Amino acid sequence: MKIGIYPGSFDPITLGHLDIIIRASKLVDQLVIGILKNISKNTIFTVEERVELVNRVLKENNLDTKVKVESFDGLLVDFAKECNASFIVRGLRAITDFDYELQLAQTNHKLNQDIDTIFFTTRLEYSYLSSSTVREIASFGGDIKQFVPECVVQSVYDKYKAIRSV
Question: Where along this sequence does the record place binding of substrate (predicted)?
């Protein structure tokens, strides 16, 4: 069984993430979306909320049988080994992403030579898109419908409404 891991924060999941999930899922028997519990990242959604949002997107796009979502902490290569994954999926938007991602891929390969990294270049319409951009737009009440799956939009607005009321 060919298993790949697509790790990230997914805070929130974007249309760019979804595009890579769809494309990567065609190459594997199973794709695992690894949602990182990263205490150094300042996320707006809890890890449980992020898992739920990604699962909602997968179900809406009929990907929930081939793609599963799990949260993890620690080293990605250790998580990949636990999942019996043979490769890691990463997306590249720009040359600046490549420099960073190449260093990570080489480090991960040094830590575990059985795990390779496959890079997907982002489609042009998503080359500027990031979760942090979506969060910034949403925090000011801007329209994020063209950036995230439809089933995620209200959850993002609700989260910022809750944050503002605290």
Answer: 9, 41, 76, 90
